[in-house]
Structures are given as C-alpha cells and as structure tokens.
Amino acid sequence: MRILFALPGFHRYERGAEVALLSVADELAKLGESVTVIGAGEPREGVRYRYKKLGAARRERFERLPSIPGLRDETKWEDATFAANLAAKEDLSQYDVTVTCNFPFTNLALQRGRRKGPRNVFVTQNGDWPAFSNDSEYRLFNCDGLVCTNPSYLERNRDRWNCTLIPNGVDVARFTPASSAEKIACRERLKLPQQRPIVLMVSAFIRTKRVLDGIRAVAQHDGAHLVVAGDGPLRAEGDRLAAELLPNRFTRLSLQASEMPQLYRAADVFMHLSEFESFGNVYLEAWASGLPVVAHDFEVTRWIYGDTQYLCDTGDEAALEEKLRLALVAPVGKAPEGIDQFTWPEIANNYRNFFSQFAAVSEAK
C-alpha cells in the first residue's frame, strides 16, 4: 500500500497526536508498506518512512488571536497554512490512502484527492467532534474511514461512518520501570532533586489539561516536587502560581522525545488531570514505566486501567488529594501487566488491516 500521513506538527512537536501517528507510520514502513510522512518540521535520521517537509506558520505566533469559526485556536492557523501548501504542492494520486487527524484544513485538502484515487482516513486523535457535529465548519467534514481511539467514539459514530476501534500504543522497549540506581542517574542528568518525591505531569499549558490545578494539588503535599513537561499559552501563569505555591518545588521543562523515558524513570508518581482525552499516550507511557498513576476517572482511563490505578473525580479537591497521597506512598517500578495489547506493532497491524480495504478500492479505480 502507498500511504500518506499529513500533519503540520510532524517532526516539529512531540505531542500525543504526532507521537502516535509517527509511531504507526514507522511500524507500517517496517512491515513493508510504502509510507510517506509530510510535516512542517525538519527531517530526522533513523526513521523508516519517507519524509517530506512543507512550510507552515508556527502555532505559537497565533496564541493571542481571537477565536472565530474555522480558526478557533492557534493550531487551526498552523493547520491552514500547512493545508494550503499541501493542496498546492502534493500530487495525491500517487497514494492509496491518506491519513490525518487535523480538521478542518488538512482534512479538506486531502478530500480533494478522493476524486483521483486515494481514500481518506481520519483519526480521532484530537477528538471526534468533526465526525458527528453538523455545526459551522463541521458540516464540511468527510472521510472514507474513521479510526476511533476509544470505545465512546466508536459507539457515537459507527452508524454514520466506516469505523474501527484502534487505541494508541507505547514502545515497551523504551518506556520501562527504573531500578533505584537508574532513578538516581536520571534525576542527576535532568538536574532534578534526589531527596524529594517527584510528581510528573506531561501536559500542555492549556485550560483543558489543568496543569494549574496540578500545581495546587501538589502544594498540599509537603516536600513533593512537581515536574511539568510541556508548553503552551498558560506557561507564564503556571510559573507565577508555582512560584507562589511551590517555591523551590517546581520544574518546568521541554524535552526531546528521546529524553522522555528517562524523565518517567526519574519520577515517583504520574498525574494527568484532563477530564477527557481522545486517548492519551501519556497514560501508557507512565504505566509502562511502572509509575502509579493519578488521573481523572472517565471511560477512557477506566477502559485502559480498570481498577489498577488511582482514578477519581479530579474536580473534587479532597478526592484528588487523597489519591495523590496514596500514590506517593505506593511502590514504584512494578512491571505492568496487560500492556501487551497496546504495543505499537500490534496497533500498526490493526491500522494495516483497516487500510487494506481502501487500497483495494484505489487499485480498482
């Protein structure tokens, strides 16, 4: 199969959608498929897929612009500039399947290729709202296949679209529990305190990720040090709040993807307070790293973890404080059981099976 993955954040950001789809692309190339990835970042060594760079304005330039239909946040402006280049410069007839998780602009740019042969697959990495809403620009949404990253999305969309349920995955060779010696070494490399329990959040500084609530929660636990790996429009507000509530107990950093496993190994507890995620790669990365996980109790986390982690209504301050207290005294480094179903080779094979129906249609044309 000839497969195209298109997203402006490819090779530019290490956020959940980019990490997930690039992992799938690399595994599919490993399986022998002809895979092309188009993004706005720089080429990388060591990848199996073919990479092409297209220009796109950086999303940070648009953080303070007002929200309007179609351009509701800074990522949509980035998407619009990328999609314009994609439509102008890429011949889509050379592919059997095109894949994105960006709406509206990249999705619409790929729709034009459907007349030339390739089928378009939309992945709900950033939510399924485009697939079921008929408001405003969402009425323009279309796809030949919809990859639902959680059971709720599948249930909501299965009667309207050609759907499949495929979660995200994790590289269990990279994300592994740390020994005591490894934890010390990782903290030393990252310049993190050795004598304090570390609570880790891997979250963008945006409202829905609730990093500021995480700062308030950790402030209730004397001695705990909060590390946040992420960036976003609320970074300055987060820094100010941490300076007030967590003096000398807060670290904000940005790391390359290659450095993330050692960050998990340096931690004692993982906390993620988003009240809803399409999936959340970080849930698996923390689990594979043997960390106790404090997270919001909703259908996705319950589907992933069952009753094995510290789930609660994280909007309830007392409940969150209690779960965090329990997690801080829980054993670290326990090898995860049941994570095999979420490995990238398994996930990529599911994508391959789903894409195969569209390759047959393309060849028939």
UniProtKB/TrEMBL annotation:
A GO molecular function held by the record: glycosyltransferase activity
Record has Transferase as a keyword: yes
Signal peptide: none
Domain spans labelled Glycosyl transferase family: 187-328
Record-annotated Glycosyltransferase subfamily 4-like N-terminal domain positions: 16-174
CDD domains registered for this protein in UniProt: GT4_PimA-like (cd03801)
Keywords (A to Z) from UniProt: Transferase
Keyword Transferase: yes
Coiled coil feature spans: none
Protein name per Swiss-Prot or TrEMBL: Glycosyltransferase family 4 protein
Source organism: Qipengyuania atrilutea
